[in-house]
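Tutorial handout. Part one gives the primary structure; part two gives the three-dimensional structure as tokens.
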Amino acid sequence: MSSKDQLLVYLKEEKGKWVSGESLSRKMAVTRSAVWKHIHRLKEEGYVIESSRKKGYFFRQSSDLLLAHEIREGLETRVFGRQDIVYFQETDSTNLRAKSLADRGAPEGTVVIAESQTEGRGRRGRTWFSPAGEGIYVSVILRPALSPNEASRLTLLAAVAAAETLLHLTSLNVRIKWPNDIMVRGKKLAGILTQVSTEMDAVDYIVVGLGINVNTPLKDFPDDLRSSATSIQAEMNGPFPRISLLRLYLERFEDRYEMFKQSGFQPILERWKELSDIIGKKIRVDLLNHHCMGEVLDIDQDGILILRDQDGTLQRILSGNVTLLDG
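Part two.
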């Protein structure tokens, strides 16, 4: 543990009390000047700490930055986030950074987090709006024993984990839109991007990226997103703590991942269907070069949508942009 992190532990232990610089320097076996420098760095990281020449330091509030030690504090996982949490103030894309780490052998459960992304991506190459300090942009490296055609199951699994997290922590009526969007009142609140690396006939690793609009005011969304996107703050009329949200998501994601490895995909699929209301609905699916319309009959074991089109023909759709045509 670094001296700065050690100082933070001491300050949190004494939260609500003034702590003298002398007592802190004595505990840490460093000079009072070193204590002051660490306090200054903690303030730069967003911690609210009062300073007084006579009284010392008063810890008032933790940072809302998605810092590794803040996430790990109270994190109840066995693997996810336990070894490596890689943090960026800004990066191109957490999925790109995670893929680079995975290519170099990063272990399963490695977590990559950014405060902002310059090249955040959603499905089909769309840009993911990633303003600094307002959302959660996180990617997790997985190394499951799967064949490549089973990899799409991890997208539905992550959607279940994200939806359950939001349902537990908020009062929002969260639903999953096939295959990987988290919706509230018909607007996108979160999205998942899964990328797979294979070797021969097996998965080498899977990177599962999640973007959640947390504290973005509606007025700050780009014009082309304002009618189709939303945030937790916009829906709940106030800011929401990002760290507790990210921490629970990692816990739920790991829990569902372990369920998947031990019990197979069926329990995950059943839960996905409970959290989605697409079965039996009439939809339009926009594919790369055409579209089709029909009734959704089911989602199969590989997460593929089974559609009965207007001619009565059954179609298996792996990916596409879905629009509900009724209710």
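Part three, for discussion. Residues 242-263 form the longest helix (22 residues). The radius of gyration is 22 Å.
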